[in-house]
Amino acid sequence: MVLQVETLEIRVVEEGETSSSSSTLPPILQDMANERKNFQMNLGKAMDTLRKDMPEILKTAPDYSIYHENISVVDPSGVQLTGIENYKNSIKFMHQFLNFWFQSERSGIQYRLVYDFARSSIKVSWHAVLIPKMPLGKPLHVDGISMYKLDPDSGKIIEHKFENMSINNTPVVPPYGVFSLLQQEWGLVGTPGNMIPAGF
């Protein structure tokens, strides 16, 4: 079951303020309630941050404060990265790649963000249009789904998984990644397709 989440209203009890429910719950239930409250707060922060970052994700680094230091990133070709530094490097490489081959001022991305209760993940469906710099190069239409899974303890994003990716309606399926399809589309040679995950 997938529901659209537009706003997430959470009331935080300030220090010195009493909550009517806190005095009536047994300690173990109170701990569970506090954990759920923390999770909801982190979920709200993650969704707000993703909503702010997505429009410029092709050009600007995102806010990394919502990501776990041991984040795992998986793309359809099976390439996997672990760790926030590797994630940052993959985003930096993506920006360099896009800036070299595409017109950043004319390229763009559209997205839809929802919370997937069944998978306890934030789901972002996106469609990117990339306008090449090369003469007569045809635009690339890249579609995909990014699933962001939150760590139940820290509330930070512990996994970023790319699903259902395609370039100009050609699915990205194992063992191929997005760079393999770019080579097919344009005849590019020597693109390091196994260096980073395939998605955006």
Task: Please describe what this structure looks like.
- It comes from Fragilariopsis cylindrus CCMP1102.
- The chain is built from 3 helices and 8 strands; from the N terminus they run E-H-E-E-H-E-E-E-E-E-H.
- The chain has helices spanning 27-53, 84-101, 178-186, and strands at residues 2-3, 67-74, 80-82, 108-116, 121-130, 140-150, 157-167, 170-171.
- Strands 1, 2, 3, 4, 5, 6, 7 and 8 form an 8-stranded mixed sheet that branches.
- The longest helix has 27 residues, at 27-53.
- Overall shape: it is elongated
Low-confidence stretches: 1-22, 188-200
CATH first level: Alpha Beta
Assign the structural class, choosing from mainly alpha, mainly beta, alpha/beta, alpha+beta, or little secondary structure.
alpha+beta
Kindly report the CATH topology: Nuclear Transport Factor 2, Chain: A
How much β-strand is present in the residues? 25-35%
User: Can you summarize the main beta sheet?
Assistant: 8 strands, mixed
Count helical runs: 3
What is the residue-mean pLDDT, rounded to a whole number?
79
Instruction: Give the name of the CATH architecture.
Output: Roll
The overall strand count is 8
Radius of gyration: 20 Å
| Distance from first to last alpha carbon | 25 Å
